[in-house]
């Protein structure tokens, strides 16, 4: 049972002289891990390496017992790691349904993919709007659609990079519900700056700073940690935690 | 073992090939490296340079060197005009800019043909020959190499040490910031494009005495210029210099040495008919092209890129 | 940026698939275009049918570029290279493998297969080497230019494959020896046995037989339908996904290199089909199929017609060739005969020379203007109007096409054609 779904050991990537990422990390099956840290802490770079968009300089990534460190990005996606990017990344001129169908079709084929896409449509709250071009959606809706696309093929691990950026409080409620449902089927790593949101969903929290794992623990432990306050929470918790 | 005189000639031919490639690619590399614009009309600036020299010598009865000095000026004027009329509207749209320059290229070929007619011209050979063992070699080719080195050095010094160079590099690195600091970025782009055109014009003038001058001559050279720039990669001057030397070596060797002979069923006099693969200028270009494709498979970013690392 | 244009399009139309040509509006447009095309050989002389067949062949070539550019966002500026290789391959095989009256099936296959293999080879290096888009488009253009220098350099007597003489600038001919002299013969036209018929089908466009015209038209329609169907499969959907957002397509688990490879190879085969028809149409092919002007004309056709619909390139190719040949016809009035010492004479001489350069000036000017002004080309706005106001569309388009057709026939009969 203690076999982790994702284990990252000694992962390193430099940009010029800057050590952007230098960490080890383990994620259990069915875990929801929040990844927080100030801007430039290496969170997005870490996601890029996980999904095969960047090659690490050193280190090793094992996913479900398999070494995926140097695999092509699409193979990693096929093995079951999916991502919602920080900036909404969807197929704008295609309809909402076509977006979801493209995400489902690779794994399930045309007809089953279609059924899956319709079910997901309901699940993420787009019923009746399937023919709308994705370009028409608001920023928050695009984010939700992308979460739907990332989770439709039943991936074992979903990476969400700032899922609530640009969302209204009502939309955030919705996203919290969505994540609660997703956790039944997949492990999740969520990068977020919105501390209210993190407080609502978090089980375990990892703080990154200058590419390294700075602290790990429950949300209350992290919030109690003075060092973390110094580098990050200090200014964020008191002010509005949202990024512009 | 190769006789000494052959070895010297082969070395000179490698130098010559590398020179021609560098001359062709320099202007293109400045425009692409500095402005990120793939200028398909570059071959026509080259043609304009050659025709300016030709017109000055043939119709203006001016000395050759005057024509050669006029060439980059005319090419720069045409280049600046094109930048103002067309390219200016297309910054930030690299694909459209490339298509538009292709249109410009065709229109320029058309206009040059309307003026000079679809005729092949030649310029008289400048300078004489010297002898190495059993071979003769044109002195002018050595002058060409010196001119190429001088041009590259001038471009380097221009961008490194002059106020224009500093402003141009600032504009390339970050247009908004440069504009905020008071650099007239629009003018910088215009001048850079004009400089690229002038370099191509100068190349056309320098090469004109060695080649036949036709309105469509740019097409023959543009392919090699592009290969040189693509293989060179993102660092404009260093990339051009290194890829011109490597590709020049490949080209000169393939153009010099026959590789194999194939007998065919044609009716030749005298029989038999054989095709010789290698050993002519065409196979030099072919080898260059194939080598470049394989090299780009291994190093998609070119010689000065980071080796395709993600 | 491409995504933005398409999104803008969608916003304006309010439909997700407004440009889909297989919808009723698209089918009706197809019918409006097709019916007159079917009737052309009866309304006009064989010469008109013959030149229209050539335009259709160019249209097919443009469609092959449309297929990869419009749908997968892959730009190939040297699509004519595959066209030319197809034409040469067909010619060389047809000259060698059969006698004058036999079956050219093998040559047709070779003429499609060779460019398909060549495009597969290049696609591998381009897409698996992760060459950037801009570089990839130039690499194919450079291929075309290299093939041009190669084809030009084959003028000598030794450049013979079997009985096929490559012939450099003079073009591809067969050679046979009759009583010690060399006799040249042309590339045989497409000849295919038809089941149930005693005579094989033969490609002809002359006073008594226009089978070649219908073969060209039929092939165009067939390739169009096949490509449309293909684009409705996963291949087409993923291609669009790659065009719109490559990173997202990858992170959904699609091997985009493979999809690009497939699209590019199919486009190469389509260009090859056009090349085969071209070689059969003129019974002749020379290095001009590889030159830069021809390469540009294909890109211009797709840009002018509009790359977001499969028919755009087709419309553009026919339009641009019509314009070029019309201006070329004006130039046939002759230059060099006018008195250039007076200003009007000088201007006339310049105009005449410019008209002579129409094949190069027209694509050039159209390229610049399309990029600067008419960004979508002509077909998408047209189709959009039809989708939005079908009735007005039909009331204008049907009569316009009909009137043009009737006038054209009438003026041919009266021999006072102004257009």
What secondary-structure arrangement, pairings included, does this model have?
The complex is a heterotrimer of chains A (244), B (310) and C (419).
Chain A (H helix, E strand, L loop, with lengths): L5 E10 L2 E10 L4 E5 L6 H8 L7 E6 L2 E2 L5 H7 L1 E4 L11 H28 L15 H13 L5 E5 L7 H14 L4 E5 L3 H7 L2 E6 L2 E6 L1 H6 L1 H13 L6
Parallel strand pairs in A: 3-8, 3-9, 6-7, 7-8
Antiparallel strand pairs in A: 1-2, 1-4, 4-5, 9-10
Chain B lengths: L3 H32 L6 H17 L5 H22 L8 H23 L12 E4 L2 E4 H23 L1 H11 L1 H6 L4 H23 L9 H16 L3 H21 L1 E7 L8 E6 L2 H18 L12
Antiparallel strand pairs in B: 1-2, 3-4
Chain C lengths: L1 H12 L10 H20 L2 H27 L6 H19 L7 H24 L4 H20 L7 E2 L2 E2 L7 E6 L2 E5 L5 E2 L8 E2 L8 H21 L2 H11 L1 H6 L4 H27 L9 H14 L6 H20 L11 H14 L1 H15 L6 H10 L1 H25 L5
Antiparallel strand pairs in C: 1-2, 2-3, 3-4, 5-6
Query: What helical percentage do the residues of chain C reach?
Result: 55-70%
Uncertain residue segments of chain B? none
Which runs of chain C of at least 5 residues are low in confidence (pLDDT < 50)?
Answer: 1-22
> Topology as H/E string of chain B?
HHHHEEHHHHHHEEH
E-strand count of chain B: 4
* Spatial shape of chain B: globular
Share of residues in helices of chain B: 55-70%
**Helix/strand class of chain C:** mainly alpha
Write the element-wise H/E pattern of chain C from the N-terminal end onward: HHHHHHEEEEEEHHHHHHHHHH
Which structural class fits the helix and strand makeup of chain B?
A: mainly alpha
Describe this structure in words.
The complex is a heterotrimer of chains A (244), B (310) and C (419). By secondary structure, chain A is of the alpha/beta class. Chain A contains eight helices and ten strands. In chain A, a hairpin with a 2-residue loop joins strand 1 (6-15) and strand 2 (18-27). In chain A, helix 3 packs across helix 4. In chain B, 68% of the residues lie in helices and 7% in strands. Chain B has helices at residues 4-35, 42-58, 64-85, 94-116, 139-161, 163-173, 175-180, 185-207, 217-232, 236-256, 281-298; strands spanning 129-132, 135-138, 258-264, 273-278. Chain B starts with a helix and ends in a 12-residue tail after the last helix. Helices cover 68% and strands 5% of the residues of chain C. Chain C contains 16 helices and six strands. Chain C has helices at 2-13, 24-43, 46-72, 79-97, 105-128, 133-152, 211-231, 234-244, 246-251, 256-282, 292-305, 312-331, 343-356, 358-372, 379-388, 390-414; strands at residues 160-161, 164-165, 173-178, 181-185, 191-192, 201-202. The two termini of chain C are 39 Å apart. The model of chain C is unreliable at 1-22 (pLDDT under 50). Chains B and C meet through helix 4, helix 9, strand 4 and helix 11 of B and helix 6, strand 1, helix 11, helix 13 and helix 14 of C.
């Amino acid at each position: 049972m203690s076999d982790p779904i994702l284990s990252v050991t000694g992962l390193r990537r430099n940009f010029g002289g800057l050590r952007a990422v230098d960490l080890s990390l383990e994620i259990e099956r069915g875990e929801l891990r929040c990844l927080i840290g100030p801007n430039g802490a290496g969170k997005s770079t870490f996601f890029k390496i996980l999904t095969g968009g960047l090659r690490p300089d050193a280190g090793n990534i094992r996913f479900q017992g398999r070494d995926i460190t140097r695999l092509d990005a699409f193979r990693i996606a096929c093995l079951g790691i999916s991502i919602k990017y920080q900036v909404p990344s969807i197929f704008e001129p295609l309809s909402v349904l076509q977006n979801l169908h493209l995400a489902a079709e690779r794994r399930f084929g045309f007809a089953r993919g279609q059924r899956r896409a319709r079910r997901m449509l309901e699940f993420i709250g787009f019923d009746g709007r399937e023919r709308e071009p994705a370009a028409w959606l608001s920023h928050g809706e695009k984010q939700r659609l992308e979460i739907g696309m990332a989770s439709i093929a039943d991936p074992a691990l979903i990476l969400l990079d700032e899922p609530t950026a640009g969302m209204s409080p009502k939309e955030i409620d919705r996203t919290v519900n969505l994540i609660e449902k997703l956790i039944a089927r997949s492990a999740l790593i969520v990068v977020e700056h919105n501390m209210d949101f993190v407080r609502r969903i978090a089980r375990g929290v990892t703080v990154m700073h200058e590419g390294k794992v700075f602290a790990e623990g429950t949300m209350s432990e992290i919030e109690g940690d003075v060092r973390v306050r110094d580098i990050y929470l200090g200014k964020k918790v008191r002010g509005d935690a949202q990024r512009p | 073992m190769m006789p000494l005189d052959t070895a010297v000639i082969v070395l000179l031919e490698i130098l010559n090939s590398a020179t021609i490639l560098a001359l062709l690619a320099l202007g293109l590399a400045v425009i692409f490296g500095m402005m990120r614009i793939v200028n398909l009309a570059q071959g026509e600036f080259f043609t304009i340079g050659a025709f300016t020299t030709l017109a000055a010598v043939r119709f203006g009865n001016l000395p050759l060197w005057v024509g050669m000095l006029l060439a980059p000026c005319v090419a720069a004027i045409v280049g600046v005009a094109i930048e103002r009329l067309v390219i200016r509207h297309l910054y930030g749209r690299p694909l459209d800019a490339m298509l538009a320059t292709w249109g410009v290229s065709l229109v320029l070929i058309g206009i040059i043909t309307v003026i000079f007619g679809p005729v092949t011209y030649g310029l008289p050979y400048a300078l004489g020959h010297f002898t190495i063992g059993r071979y003769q070699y044109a002195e002018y080719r050595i002058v060409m190499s010196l001119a190429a080195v001088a041009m590259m050095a001038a471009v380097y010094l221009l961008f490194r040490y002059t106020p224009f160079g500093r402003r141009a590099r600032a504009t390339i690195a970050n247009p908004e910031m440069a504009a905020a600091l008071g650099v007239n970025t629009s003018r910088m782009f215009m001048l850079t494009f004009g400089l690229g055109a002038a370099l191509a014009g100068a190349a056309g003038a320098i090469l004109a005495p060695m080649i036949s001058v036709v309105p469509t001559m740019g097409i023959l050279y543009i392919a090699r210029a592009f290969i040189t720039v693509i293989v060179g990669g993102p660092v404009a001057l260093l990339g051009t210099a290194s890829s011109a030397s490597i590709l020049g070596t490949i080209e000169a060797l393939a153009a010099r040495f026959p590789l194999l002979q194939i007998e065919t069923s044609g009716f030749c006099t005298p029989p038999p008919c054989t095709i010789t693969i290698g050993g002519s200028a065409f196979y030099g270009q072919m080898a260059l092209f194939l080598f470049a494709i394989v090299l780009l498979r291994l190093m998609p970013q070119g010689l000065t890129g980071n080796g395709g690392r993600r | 940026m491409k995504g933005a244009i398409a999104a803008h399009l969608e916003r304006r139309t309010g439909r997700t698939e407004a440009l889909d040509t297989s919808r009723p509006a698209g089918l009706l447009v197809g019918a409006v275009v097709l019916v007159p095309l079917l009737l052309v050989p009866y309304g006009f002389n064989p010469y008109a049918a013959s030149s229209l067949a050539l335009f259709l062949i160019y249209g097919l070539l443009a469609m092959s570029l449309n297929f990869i550019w419009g749908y997968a966002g892959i730009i190939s500026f040297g699509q004519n290279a595959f066209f030319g290789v197809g034409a040469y391959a067909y010619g060389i095989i047809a000259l060698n493998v059969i006698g004058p009256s036999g079956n050219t099936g093998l040559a047709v296959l070779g003429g499609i297969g060779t460019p398909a293999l060549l495009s597969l080879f290049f696609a591998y290096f381009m897409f698996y080497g992760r060459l950037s888009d801009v570089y990839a488009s130039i690499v194919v253009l450079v291929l075309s230019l290299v093939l041009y220098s190669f084809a030009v350099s084959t003028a000598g007597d030794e450049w013979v494959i079997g009985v096929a003489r490559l012939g450099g600038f003079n073009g591809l001919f067969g050679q046979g020896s009759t009583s010690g002299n060399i006799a040249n013969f042309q590339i045989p036209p497409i000849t295919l046995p038809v089941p149930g018929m005693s005579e094989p089908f033969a490609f002809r466009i002359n006073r008594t037989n226009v089978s070649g015209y219908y073969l060209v038209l039929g092939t165009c329609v067939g390739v169009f339908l096949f490509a449309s169907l293909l684009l409705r499969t996963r291949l087409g959907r993923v291609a669009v996904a790659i065009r719109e957002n490559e990173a997202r397509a990858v992170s959904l688990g699609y091997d985009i290199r493979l999809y690009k490879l497939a699209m590019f190879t199919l486009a190469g085969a389509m260009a090859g089909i056009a090349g085969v028809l071209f070689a059969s149409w003129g019974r002749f092919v020379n290095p001009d199929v590889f030159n830069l002007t021809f390469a540009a004309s294909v890109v211009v056709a797709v840009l002018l017609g509009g790359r977001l619909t499969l028919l755009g390139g087709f419309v553009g190719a026919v339009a641009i060739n019509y314009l070029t040949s019309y201006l070329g016809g004006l130039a046939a009035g002759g230059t060099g005969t006018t008195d250039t010492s007076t200003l009007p004479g000088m201007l006339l001489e310049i105009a005449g020379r410019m008209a002579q350069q129409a094949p190069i000036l027209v694509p050039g000017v159209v390229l610049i203007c399309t990029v600067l002004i008419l960004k979508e080309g002509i077909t998408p706005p047209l189709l959009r109007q039809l989708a939005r106001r079908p009735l007005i569309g039909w009331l204008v388009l049907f009569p316009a096409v009909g009137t043009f057709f009737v006038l054209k026939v009438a003026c041919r009969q009266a021999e006072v054609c102004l257009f």
